[in-house]
Amino acid sequence: MIVVFGSINLDMIFAMEDLPLAGQTLLARSLDLHPGGKGANQAVAAARDGAAVTMVGAVGGDGLKETALSGLRGAGVDLSRVAVTGHGAGHATGTAAVCTDAAGRNQIVVAGGANLQARADQVEDALLSPGTTLIVQMESDPGETAALILRARRLGARVILNLAPAAPLPLPVLKSVDILVVNEDEAEWLAGHLGCAGDAASLRSLLGGAVIRTLGGDGVEWSAVDGSAVDGSAVDGSGRQPAPAVAVRDTTGAGDCFVGVLAAELDRGRPLAAAIRRAACAASLSCTRAGGQASLPAAAETDGALGGLAVA
Q1: 78: burial class by Cβ within 10 Å (0-12, 13-18, 19+)?
Q2: Residues 6 or more apart from 74 whose CB is under 8 A from it?
Q3: Which long-range contacts link 215-222 to residues 24+ away (Cβ below 8 Å)?
C-alpha cells in the first residue's frame, strides 16, 4: 500500500506563446482549471499504475476543493484522511498558477493555503507498517513532514522523499529517508546546503539512503549502495537510465509522475533499477500530453511503451 502525505491544489493552466519575463504582462491563449498539487499528482500517478493509494492532506472549505479532489476520486484514491479546513486567510484550497509555453516549458507559482494545515497525526501508526510506502514532498508544513518521516522510519515503512520544492529539513530527518528523489536544481540546492557535490553518489554517501537525480531529457542517475536503502534485501548499486525520445508538449507533472510510478513499482516488490526504468518511461509519456493529472498514463500505456525503452 502507498500513503501520500502532501499537497492538493487547484491548478490554473495558462497556455502561452512565451513565458513572461519579470515585470512583463502577456496575454494567454487560454485558461484551464485542473486538479493538481505535488502530493495529489503523485497519488494519482501511483493509482493509475495499479497501486492501492491513500491520500493524506487538507483542502479548504470552499468551492475550489471539488475540482482539486476530482482527479484523486477518478483514480480511486482513498480520501478518508483528507481534512477540510475552515474559511479565511490560510485556509483556502491550495492553488497553483502554471504558465506553459509553446516549447512545453513552464513557470509555476503556488499558494499553499490549506495544505499547510495538514498534520502528521492524520496518519495513524497502523498505516506505517513495513508493508507501506510513504511518499512526502515539500509543499506541506515542513515540521509536520519531518515528524511523519521520523515516525514512519521508526515503524518500518519505506519512506520516499521528493525534495520539491527544495527546502531545508534537519540532517537526521534526511538520513531517515530510504529514497530521496531530486531534480538537477533541487540536487544543486541540497548539495550547497549540505556542503557536498550534487551528483547522486555524493549525496548518497552523505545521507546513507538511495538517491535518484532526474535529469529531464537526459534521463535519470541513481546511487544505492545498500539493499536496506531499497527493500531490505536486494543490492541495486548505481546507474543511469536513458529517457526515451518523445515529442514534448508539456512537462508539467512529469516529475510527480516519476515519483508515483516509482513508488507503485517498488510497492509491487520490484527492484530499484526496474522501478526507475518504468518511472522514466511513464514520465516521458506524460510529457507528450497537456496538463498535470490529465497527462498521467495508465498502467497499460506504460506497459506498452516499456518495450521500446533502453535498459540502463
Answers
A1: middle
A2: none
A3: 215/183, 215/184, 215/243, 216/183, 216/184, 216/243, 216/251, 217/243, 217/248, 218/242, 218/243, 219/243, 219/280, 220/258, 220/276, 220/279, 220/280, 222/272, 222/276
Q: What residues act catalytically?
A: 256
Distance (Å) of CA 282 to CA 28, 238, 260, 306: 29, 21, 10, 9
Per the CB < 8 A criterion, the answer to whether 190 and 163 are in contact is yes
Which residue has 514532498 as its cell numbers? Answer: 137
Residue whose C-alpha cell reads 494519482 in the numeric block: 44
Which grid coordinates are listed for 243?
Answer: 529517457
pTM: 0.89
The one-letter amino acid code at 290 reads A
In the chain, beta strands by DSSP E: 2-5, 9-15, 30-36, 53-59, 78-84, 94-100, 106-111, 133-136, 158-162, 179-183, 210-214, 220-224, 237-241
Burial class (CB in 10 A: 0-12, 13-18, 19+), 53: buried
Angle at 132 between CA 129 and CA 135, to 5 degrees: 125
pLDDT at 151: 98
Instruction: Render pLDDT for 204-227 as a digit per residue (tens, 0 to 9).
Output: 999 999 999 999 888 899 999 754
Amino acid code (one letter) for 23:
G
Instruction: Give the pLDDT band (50/70/90) at residue 308.
Output: low
Q: Are 38 and 77 in contact (CB under 8 A)?
A: no
Residue 84 has pLDDT above 60, yes or no: yes
CA-nearest of 162, 26, 175, 191 to 97 is 26
What's 109's DSSP letter? Answer: E
Q: 185 with 163: CB under 8 angstroms?
A: no
Is residue 127 a contact partner of residue 43, using CB atoms and an 8 Å limit? no
Whole-angstrom distance, CA of residue 162 vs CA of residue 182: 6
Instruction: Name residues whose C-beta falls within 8 Å of residue 123's C-beta, 6 or more positions apart in sequence.
Output: 3, 5, 56, 81, 134, 148, 151
